[in-house]
Amino acid sequence: MTCILGWTNGHTVLLAGDSGGTKADIKFRIKHPKVFLRTGEDKTIWGFGFSGSFTVAQILQYKLALPSISPKEDIRGIIVRDFIPGFQKLCDEASTIDDKGADGKQNAADIIIAVCGQIFIVDVDFSVLEHDRLYCGLGNGAPYALGVLHQQLKKNPPQTPEDCQGLLLDAISTSTEFIAGIQEPFHVITIPYPIIERRKTSRSK
């Protein structure tokens, strides 16, 4: 049972997630966060979150080679072309893909990707989506948390990413009232976009 939230101002992305796990009728807390950072060989900073299989998360965190990013290219296109095939291959090798259902191949987890100031959802069928809002979520706790976050952002629009951290944590906390297995501690990670930061620094001199 999971609640993952993402928010961006087009520059900095925040990802937040809970620490709950379930197996059969047993619930437990995990020590490794459901949201985490990785740095590609080209020094691009990526953020990930997941809802579902811990095996899929481990593939993302430790095994998958990340593609190089050019800010002049379509980031979603890079993910579709250069990220998804390798990710799907590793998931297939790890037997996390079910190809016997009526809906075709289905992976054992949804994932969220934050890179270059943008947020993408990779569905269980490996389609890559980008929402038209500045925030989105994963997991069965997300609908409750997103409703709270929507109202909070309308009433108190954050001026900085730091302002938004508390809103994300409050929203995830609300989901625990309705969904069993979503547990503290809650984690928030920041995914900066260094290329834009460098441009802003050069203009300010």
Structural Rg: 17 Å
CATH top level is Alpha Beta
- The sequence of SSEs as H and E is EEEEEEHHEEEEHHEH
Annotated CATH architecture = 4-Layer Sandwich
Average predicted local confidence, pLDDT:
91
Shape: globular
Spatial separation of the terminal alpha carbons: 48 Å
Name the beta content range.
Answer: 25-35%
- Compute the number of strand runs: 11
Question: Helicity range of the residues?
Answer: 25-40%
- Quick one: CATH superfamily? Aminohydrolase, N-terminal nucleophile (Ntn) domain
Number of helices: 5
Strand order in space, largest sheet: 5-6-7-8-9
Number of separate structural domains: 1
Write the SSE topology:
Blueprint: E1 4-8, E2 13-17, E3 20-23, E4 26-29, E5 35-39, E6 45-52, H1 54-63, H2 75-93, E7 109-115, E8 118-122, E9 128-129, E10 135-138, H3 142-155, H4 161-175, E11 187-191, H5 194-204
Antiparallel strand pairs: 1-2, 1-10, 2-11, 3-4, 5-6, 6-7, 7-8, 8-9
